[in-house]
Write a structure and sequence with these properties.
This protein is mainly alpha-helical. It has 16 helices and six strands. It has a two-stranded antiparallel sheet with strand order 1-2. Strand 5 and strand 6 form a beta hairpin. The radius of gyration is 34 Å and the shape is elongated.
Amino acid sequence: MTGKKKNKKGKDKGFGAGVSRRLVLVVAVLVAIAWGGWYVGRMVSPYRGETAAWVRIPRDASPGEARDSICAALGDAFGGKVAALWSGDVAVSHGAYRIEPGERAWSVARKIGQGRQTPVKLTFNNVRTVTDLAERIASRMDFSADDFTAALGEIQKADSVSARELEAQFLPDTYEVYWSATPDDVIARMRANYRRFWNDERLDKARQLGLTPLEVSVLASIAEAESNRRDERGKIARLYLNRLHRGMLLQADPTVKFATGDFGARRITADMLKVASPYNTYRVKGLPPGIIRFPEARTLDAVLNSTPHNYIYMCARPDGSGYHDFTADYSAHLANARAFRSAAYGRR
């Protein structure tokens, strides 16, 4: 009887152990399923923003700072999922990424982790000085205005090009670049665009006018500053060419504003005309040594394709249209000026 009892107890003990193991296994499977569902849920969760968002990971960011940038751009809920799935390699992920509504967390994390950046559109126009240009470009890139200016200085030395020649090589346009691009990369892209512009046909037109590409840019910058009406800029450029050919002073008001730095001046005063500067065309003959703003490619073409005429005077029209009256006769010019002043005073 004693042996039978032992066998019964042993049998019961074996049955209980089997149940325990099965229970542990079932719980483990349930936990694995739950964890897998949670993980898959994180991976397939879509970005629910109403518009596209930009994730920017700076060059010198730590992994923690990069995750903060992801969450700041995409929101804590979705951004946290992406940050958790992201590889954490800042060196590879440095850059800017456009995230569209509906993109899945795993897809976004992989895009950032593989460094598959979205190009940014770098656009500039209506810029007068190199300082303004550096600030405008740096505001859209992962480098500072000082970085851009320093790169310009190094290029001047390396290429033995003057600052004024280099400035003229930046045509206002829309450039596609990566946010992580260096100043050298951006400058190279812009200079390549300038070289494409100056093909053999345009170079030949400049030679026929007796101008270098730099001089065409300078003349275009003056014409652009004189008028907001693009369709008369070629006529204005030709007027100044006529003055140059006659040995006259250009007497272009925008160059005086550039010389004084007073770009908001509504009229040129006697004191402004006295400023000693190679850009003061009321005192110095010929074209200024550099551009007074960054002229558009179409303004350069307007100079190159300008129709010959004999005008040497112009005055803003009294109708406030922004156009000018042109003449070769000084008496007619004085009459135009009186009409403009009378209308201007009447509008005050």
